[in-house]
Amino acid sequence: MNDIPERRPNAPRLTGQVRIVGAGLLGASIGLALQNQRIDVILADSSPAQLRLAVDYGAGRPEQPGDNPSIVVVSVPPDVTASVIEAELARFPGAVITDVASVKLEPFRALTDRGVDLTRYIGSHPLAGRERGGAISARADLFLGRPWVICRDDETPPDALALIEDLALDLGASPIEMTPEEHDRSVGLVSHVPQLVASILAKQLVSAPDSAVRLTGQGLRDTTRIASSAPELWVQILGSNAGPVVDVLDGIAADLAKVTDALRSPDAPGARRTLADTIAAGNTGVARLPGKHGQDRRYASIVVMVDDRPGQLGLLLTELGDIGVNMEDLRLEHSPGAQIGLAEIAVLPEVQQRTIEDLEARGWRIASV
Fold first, then answer.
1. Contact assessment for residue 213 and residue 205, using Cβ atoms and an 8 Å cutoff
2. CB atoms within 10 A of CB 299
3. Burial tier of 296 (Cβ tally within 10 Å: 0-12, 13-18, 19+)
4. Are strands 340-347 and 300-307 parallel, antiparallel or unpaired?
């Protein structure tokens, strides 16, 4: 007879209290997701106003005497992450402490230099976020399908590691193990440098004439979307991960120099090949990006013209379901000066032609493929 109770489908893996220190975007989003699973979430924040707001949004409750969390999630700015981790380790000797800062090596080194026992500390980082911060922007589904990096070492107890993995899984994320060094090099490339590149590009719009800005299309919107992020936070993040970021920027600077030289003399021997090779290498890089469910595959695109009237987009999505097509991705763009929108739908290549024919038969206009 098996005395181990089976876990109900969709039941949370975590059973104890979870304390979250820092009720901003990530902290409040974690709280919302766990509260939806009826897990007791304790919120703490140095800002009473931020704490009250997160509580009002349903991300958890204020701390009370006698609280005994099994996990403490530290979600504070990078410059105070190590100090808060140290304080939480001392205050809750029975809890496993993790943090969700976007840099992992610096707090680990700071705590090690202070001689802090890190047996119960496991650094982690969900690769999820939004351009806007604060509890008001929090979402319970923020981590669904997103990677959640967990940085363990040889002394990490298996039961402590299991708790942090359960946390990530309960939030719908995909746990990935890395060393702090691997993590910081990786996010330097896929997160920190893109922020800088987007910001530098968006900066060019400050002095651009209105006539140019009015021509803005989806390409510029896509490449500058994250440029709305908070400068105060990013100064800390970039300063904490300067080495890996500089390495990537040096490579970008070298490539930009080659392209710039080619464009100064576009008719010079080899100039056009330099431009073509650069664009082609970009194609190869994009092809490596994981798609839906982490699959490394490319999708076919269908652009549908949608009248700018209430209910039209919902009708399109309904009819895609009626014809049995699974939409892999969706991007929307409004056509400037026209009462029409463009819905770019990503589908599997093998259903592209059938989807076009079925939509056209139902009266939809296809802009391009």
1. yes
2. 17
3. exposed
4. antiparallel
Domain architecture of the chain: domains with CATH:
18-179 (3.40.50.720), 186-287 (1.10.3660.10), 294-368 (3.30.70.980)
Asked whether the beta carbons of 229 and 131 are under 8 A apart, the reply is yes
Q: What is the DSSP string of 13-56?
A: S--S-EEEE--SHHHHHHHHHHHHTT--EEEE-S-HHHHHHHHH
Q: What is the DSSP letter of 338?
A: S
Q: pTM score, two decimals?
A: 0.78
Those residues whose C-beta lies under 8 Å from the C-beta of residue 52, and which sit 6 or more positions away, are none
Q: Which residues pair with 43 in a beta bridge?
A: 20, 62
Give dist(CA 277, CA 290) in Å, integer: 23
Ordered per-residue pLDDT tens for the chain, 369 residues: 344 444 444 688 998 999 999 999 999 999 999 999 999 999 999 999 999 999 999 999 999 999 999 999 999 999 999 999 999 999 999 999 999 999 999 999 999 999 999 999 999 999 988 767 789 989 999 999 899 999 987 788 999 999 999 999 999 999 999 999 999 999 999 999 999 999 999 999 999 999 999 888 878 988 998 898 889 989 999 999 999 999 999 999 999 999 999 999 999 999 999 999 999 999 999 888 876 544 445 678 898 988 888 888 889 999 998 998 888 888 877 655 567 788 888 888 889 999 999 999 999 999 865
First to last CA, the chain: 59
Burial 53-84, CB ≥16 within 10 A → b, else e: bbbebebbeeeeeeeebbbbbbbbbbbbbbeb
Short-list 294, 306, 347, CA closest to 324: 347
